[in-house]
Amino acid sequence: MRACLWYDFKKHTTSAASFRTLSEIFDDKVLTQTQVYEWFEQFKTSDDSLEDNGRGNPPQTIHNDILKQVIESDPSQTTRELAQ
């Protein structure tokens, strides 16, 4: 989706027009108009790349083997308890 937005941005298409086109093609299931606007703003302010800059998932802070040991020591723990 980001590539489609970048393409429209490079063609000087407005964010509203890009949103309408993508909504027609993908049936409003992919991005909101606000998200499209935010991507266009990002492209305008210098983030002119298609790379994922680490947004989204937070870095993993515990190793799986440690987590496995904790779970095996007390399998009745909830995910909320394990997160602490």
TrEMBL record:
GO terms for molecular function: DNA topoisomerase binding; double-stranded DNA binding; histone H3K36 methyltransferase activity; histone H3K4 methyltransferase activity; single-stranded DNA binding; single-stranded DNA endodeoxyribonuclease activity. Pfam families: HTH_48. Residues 2-45 form the Mos1 transposase HTH domain. GO terms for cellular component: condensed chromosome; nucleus; site of double-strand break. GO terms for biological process: DNA double-strand break processing; DNA integration; double-strand break repair via nonhomologous end joining; mitotic DNA integrity checkpoint signaling; replication fork processing. This is HTH_48 domain-containing protein. It comes from Caenorhabditis tropicalis.
